[in-house]
Amino acid sequence: MKRIVSLAMVILVVLALSLSGATAEEDRLTIGIVIQKENGAFLDMRNGILSKLAENGYTEETCEIVYQCAQGDATALSTICNSMDGYDLVFCIATPATQQFVNLESDTPCFFCAVSAPVAAGVLTAMETPDKNATGTSNAIPVEDIFALADVLTPGIERYGLIYSTSETNAVDTVESCIAYLEAQGIDYVTSTVNNSAEVAMATEALIDDGCDAIFVPNDSNVQAGVTALAELCMEYGIPTYCSSATTVESGCMATIAIDDFGIGEKTAEMALEYLNGTPLADIPAVVVGADYVSVNVSMLEALGVELDGDTLQVGDVSYAVSYLGQ
Fold this sequence. Notes:
Elements: H1 2-27, E1 30-35, H2 40-55, E2 64-69, H3 74-84, E3 89-93, H4 95-102, E4 110-113, H5 118-121, E5 134-138, H6 143-153, E6 159-164, H7 169-185, E7 188-193, H8 200-209, E8 214-217, H9 221-225, H10 227-237, E9 241-243, H11 246-250, E10 255-258, H12 261-276, E11 287-288, E12 293-297, H13 298-304, E13 312-315, E14 318-325
């Protein structure tokens, strides 16, 4: 009898331990990170998110972190977002992934990173009052400041070429801001659209043939994927290129006023941590993260004969730190 009781006790202990382990496993958070297409900026944003989460104890040892990239495929992006419906929270990097996930109307909170025009993209109605179970960070492109930078580095530009894809809301919004600024300043411009990265070289040639003195590249993943060809053509013809991201500068464009991509990832994670600490998502306003330094491509500067040295550059009333890339 004693042996039976002892055996029963052992079984109960084993069951208790098993149930405890199962409960602990069930209590593990599942966090998703989704990107439509990888590039240097988006990967820095992802790493910023992971770094800030890790600082606060959210690592692969304490929770399940699932990172997936759609490799630019819209169908794959839809599949990935659907697979993350039901996670504890999801980080969506850039506009396409955010739109795809928000359109699911999921109960899973979405924290978006670097959506340049969240309201125009339809991922919330107002920055101050998130209403679609989504909030996050916006990297609104400072087009006026970038054109002011162009006036400093290559004064006298009479006609800009604007290249973008109409399928990307963020790019359309940025180009519309460019057009509004250029028209207000009485500066001529020509637009050229692409459907994919393979069309970037041809669109660039068309802008050059139209007599553009400079080309502006918005935050557009299709153009970014083909921007090396654009930069090579512009270098050949002596055309300065301004853009919206330090990653695009590293790919060959001449200059921009950029945000800290790792830092915007960290900021997005901080907002998610507020939620995990008990703040309702609707009480966490979306925020615009400002650009804070000038990024220049040394090879393009040299090819165009633009002289620049030193650690800072004065653009209007602001003195920016300068980051030299492509050396």
